[in-house]
Design a protein that fits this description.
Oligomer: single chain
Largest sheet: none
Radius of gyration: 24 Å
Helix content: over 70%
Number of strands: 0
Strand content: under 5%
Number of domains: 2
C-alpha cells in the first residue's frame, strides 16, 4: 500500500503550490494591466533586450543544487553549506559575465540604454546567490505554507516597487528595480523565516556536482529543445505566424502547466522521503500520476474540442488562425504533465543520469524532425511534429521508468482506463452537441460556459458509471470519493 501520510502531504502541498502559482500569476496580470497604461511599447522593447542575456544565462546554468538537497534525505550541514557556497559562486560568475557583456550587447542592439539596466540585473543576480539555503527545507520538509509565504512575499515586494516606480517616474526602470527589490526581499526573508545559518564551505562539492552535472545536462538540453520550435519559426515563418504559434503554445499549455507544476513541486520531496522503499515509492508515484491525469486528460481533450470558441472568447477574431494549432497542442499538454511528474520521480529516485541522457536524446530527436517538418509542411507540420515527438518521448519515458522498476505501466493503465474512456465519450458528445448549442445564437461567452459545464458533467457521469460497473475499485475516483466523504463526515460531526 502507498504511504497515506506522504500522499496526504503531497496533496496538501499541491494545493499550496496551486494557490502560490495563482497568486503570483494574478499579481503578474495586475502588473501588466497597470504598466501597459503607464509605459509605452518602446519601454518594453528596451527591457526585453536587457533581460535577454540574463534570461539565457539563468536558463542554461541551472545545476539543480536545491534538488540535490531535497533528494538526499541524509543531507548534512556540509551539504547545505556547500550548496550555498556553490550558489554564490554561480551567481557571482553570472554577474561578472553580465557586466562584461553589457557594452557588447548594447553595440549589437545599437541600444546604449540597456547597459545600466543590465548592470542592475547583474546586481540582482548577485544578491540572489546569497539567499539562505535553509529555505529549501520548506519544500524538503513539505512545509508548503512557509514555501507559499516566502515566494509570495518576494513577488509582492517586487510588484509593489515596480508599480511604485512606474507611477512615480513613468520609466522602464520600474522593471529592474522591481526585480532588485524582490531579490533583496528574498534575501532578508530567507534569514528571518529560516533559523539555519550557512557558512562558506566546499567540503562535499564533488558529490553535489556529481548530481548537478546531470541536472545541468537535463536543464540545458531541455532549454534548447523547448526553444527549438520558436527558433525555427523565427527563421522559416513570418512574424505573424511566429506570434500565432507562441500564443497558441501558451494557451494550449495552460491546463497542463497549471496542473503539472504544482504536482511536480510537491511530489519531489514526498517521493524523496520514500526513496529508501522502492515498492512504496512506486505505488505512491502511480497514484500521483493517475490522479493528476484524471484532471489533465479531460482538460486537454476539452480544450482541443472547444478551441474555436475559446480562441474567439479569450483572444478575439484576430487570432482565428490559432484554432488549429491549439487543437493539436492541447493534446501535447498531456505529455507535458507526464513529463513533469516523471522528472520528479526520477530525481527522487536518484536516477538523474537517466534524466540527463533522456533529455539529450529528446533534443536530438526534435533537432532531426522539427526542421524538416517546418521547411516542407510549414507551421502545422511543425505543430504536429511537436505532438508526435512528445508522444514518442512520453512512451519512452514510461517504458524507461518501468524498466528500472520505478513504474508499472499495467498498474497505471488499470487506474486510468476509465478516465480515457470517459474523456473519449466527452469528446464525442461535445463534437455532437457544440453545433446544436451554436444554433441557438446565444452570446458566445454563455455558449462556451455551457459547453464546459456539459463536458464536465458528461465526463463525471461516465467516470462514475464505469467506476461502479468495474470490478477493480482502485483508482483516482476512489481517492476523490474518500476526500469528499471525509469532508462530509467532518461537517456532520
Amino acid at each position: 500500500m502507498p504511504d497515506k501520510s506522504i500522499a496526504k502531504q503531497i496533496a496538501t502541498g499541491t494545493i499550496w503550490s496551486v494557490l502560490m502559482r495563482m497568486t503570483i500569476r494574478m499579481l503578474g496580470i495586475i502588473s501588466v494591466l497597470i504598466l501597459a497604461r503607464i509605459l509605452v511599447p518602446a519601454d518594453y522593447g528596451i527591457v526585453a533586450k536587457a533581460i535577454l542575456l540574463s534570461g539565457f544565462l539563468e536558463l542554461v546554468t541551472q545545476f539543480g543544487f536545491n534538488a540535490a538537497l531535497i533528494q538526499n534525505q541524509n543531507a548534512t550541514k556540509d551539504d547545505y553549506d556547500t550548496v550555498w557556497t556553490l550558489s554564490i559562486i554561480r551567481a557571482t560568475a553570472l554577474s561578472i559575465v553580465m557586466l562584461i557583456s553589457a557594452p557588447w550587447l548594447a553595440d549589437y542592439f545599437n541600444e546604449v540604454a540597456i547597459v545600466p539596466l543590465i548592470y542592475a540585473y547583474s546586481i540582482s543576480t548577485f544578491i540572489q546567490g546569497f539567499t539562505n539555503v535553509g529555505v529549501i527545507d520548506f519544500q524538503r520538509d513539505m512545509n508548503f505554507n512557509f514555501d507559499f509565504k516566502f515566494n509570495v512575499f518576494q513577488k509582492i515586494s517586487s510588484f509593489s516597487v515596480t508599480i511604485a516606480v512606474a507611477l512615480t517616474w513613468q520609466s522602464y526602470w520600474a522593471f529592474p528595480l522591481g526585480v532588485l527589490a524582490g531579490s533583496v526581499a528574498a534575501l532578508f526573508a530567507s534569514f528571518l523565516m529560516s533559523a539555519y545559518r550557512p557558512r562558506f564551505c566546499l567540503t562535499t562539492w564533488r558529490s553535489i556536482l556529481n548530481f548537478s552535472k546531470w541536472m545541468f545536462l537535463y536543464e540545458t538540453m531541455g532549454a534548447i529543445s523547448l526553444k527549438l520550435d520558436t527558433f525555427l519559426l523565427s527563421k522559416f515563418a513570418s512574424a505573424e505566424e511566429l506570434g500565432v504559434y507562441t500564443i497558441s503554445y501558451e494557451v494550449s499549455g495552460m491546463p497542463s502547466t497549471e496542473i503539472a507544476m504544482p504536482v511536480a513541486r510537491s511530489a519531489l520531496p514526498g517521493l524523496s522521503k520514500l526513496n529508501h522503499n522502492l515498492s512504496k515509492m512506486k505505488e505512491t508515484y502511480i497514484d500521483i500520476l493517475a490522479t493528476t491525469l484524471m484532471v489533465a486528460i479531460p482538460a486537454a481533450v476539452g480544450l482541443s474540442v472547444l478551441a474555436e470558441d475559446i480562441v474567439k472568447v479569450v483572444l478575439g477574431n484576430n487570432w482565428i488562425s490559432a484554432i488549429a494549432i491549439i487543437e493539436v497542442l492541447a493534446l501535447f499538454g498531456v505529455t507535458r504533465v507526464i513529463s513533469a511528474c516523471s522528472v520528479s520521480a526520477l530525481i527522487a529516485a536518484g536516477k538523474v543520469n537517466i534524466l540527463g541522457r533522456f533529455s539529450f536524446f529528446m533534443m536530438l530527436m526534435r533537432l532531426a524532425i522539427l526542421p524538416v517538418s517546418v521547411i516542407y509542411y510549414g507551421i502545422m507540420g511543425l505543430t504536429y511534429s511537436v505532438l508526435i515527438t512528445g508522444l514518442i518521448g512520453m512512451i519512452l519515458m514510461l517504458w524507461t521508468q518501468q524498466f528500472i522498476g520505478l513504474l508499472s505501466i499495467k498498474a497505471l493503465l488499470l487506474q486510468i482506463w476509465r478516465i480515457i474512456i470517459a474523456a473519449s465519450v466527452m469528446h464525442i458528445s461535445l463534437n455532437f452537441l457544440v453545433p446544436l448549442i451554436h444554433s441557438f445564437e446565444w452570446p458566445l461567452l454563455i455558449v462556451l460556459l455551457l459547453e464546459v459545464v456539459i463536458g464536465v458533467l458528461v465526463f463525471s457521469i461516465v467516470s462514475i458509471v464505469l467506476y461502479n460497473l468495474s470490478n477493480s475499485k482502485v483508482g483516482p475516483e476512489q481517492r476523490v470519493l474518500n476526500i469528499i466523504y471525509s469532508k462530509i463526515s467532518r461537517k456532520s460531526l
